[in-house]
From TrEMBL:
Segments forming domain CobW/HypB/UreG nucleotide-binding: 3-179
InterPro entries registered for this protein in UniProt: CobW/HypB/UreG_nucleotide-bd, P-loop_NTPase, Zinc-reg_GTPase_activator
Protein name: CobW/HypB/UreG nucleotide-binding domain-containing protein
Pfam hit, one: cobW
Annotated PANTHER family: COBW DOMAIN-CONTAINING PROTEIN (PTHR13748:SF62), COBW-RELATED (PTHR13748)
Amino acid sequence: MKIIVVGGFLGSGKTTALVRLGTYYSSIGKSVGIIVNEVGEIGIDGDIISQYGLETKEITSGCICCSLKTSLRATLLLMIENYNPDVIIIESTGVAYPGAIRDEVMLMNLPMDYDMAPLLTLFDGSRFKQILKEIKNFAAQQLAQAEVIAVSKTDLVEASMLPIIETAVSQINPKAEIITLSSKNPESLAQLINILERSSDTEARLAELKKVVANDGSLLMAGGKKDNSIEASGVGSFSAEYVLDDTRLKSLNESDFEKIVKEIMSQIRESVLQKSPDFLGHIKLFLESGSALYKISLTTAEEDPIYDFIPPADENAAAAPNLKILSAVTGISSGDIKEIVQNSVENVLNENKIIFSA
Ligand SMILES: Nc1nc2c(ncn2[C@@H]2O[C@H](COP(=O)(O)OP(=O)(O)OP(=O)(O)O)[C@@H](O)[C@H]2O)c(=O)[nH]1
Ligand SMILES: [Mg+2]
């Protein structure tokens, strides 16, 4: 069994990359299990990963690198018992320290042989300047123990910027191997797959860890103190799920739903901009109309949201209509983002005469 830990800041492309990895492993006959951790109570990535027919389990309401270590162990053991995958991929939250997750897995004494892949951390090349401006120290902490750093979304990066980004990243972590990754470039996936065939240097890391394990068996972070990555990130977050009444939905078509999700995102963006003009993070919304899925995602103040329509995999498999939203952004309190998200979603649903319950 191979275990792959994927980290990187909010919206850096982790789920996109691991869906491609998972699909590749499935295509060569390997069974794959994906564990995805989301900071909010409501998870969205698990739904997206399931859409691709991949086996997935979600851990929500916090970070597996700090408060949810026992959940991670229980979920890993359950996945192995029920499914025994050849490859397990663990996606950390965007506000986790991925190194701490790899360390925790190694310290779990899992009751089976496994091979830990080199610790992979994504660094979003398309948001390089914003990351340095808004979350430089936190991003550096995330990259600190990476063995492989993938500069992601390179299709959005100007060619002349790439060497500058690579130099900056290697200054933060000179030991890591640096590669590039783009969902638009199959060759970059092939390179990543090759690198993940290798093993993490777990022996060296375990020797180091002996020096930093507290009396209660938990890990101490840099400087010997316990650290809470969610607090350190300065990110405010809120997630919610709304059940939608399908009476009205039946009279709406694809372009109506597209307008609805775009309007919700636009209202949230406008309000967040007023409180946090340079925000960085991930606001993701997933609307299940009962016959199709509508997805919209925003990761910086400047960009336009990315909209996706996903037709139903099986015409007969009508799901209960619902709307899930997860917002985690810098420079705003969790209370403020909660108010903004609730107001925006509820306004737009009311305007469109859609009855909902939260
Ligand atoms: N252009 C481009 N967009 C990408 C690429 N990878 C991811 N994206 C987009 O970036 C957004 C965030 O991607 P995700 O894969 O959800 O990022 P994530 O790191 O899993 O996000 P969180 O789990 O919320 O932290 C989505 O809208 C993706 O479609 C890429 O290589 N190129
Ligand atoms: Mg994700």
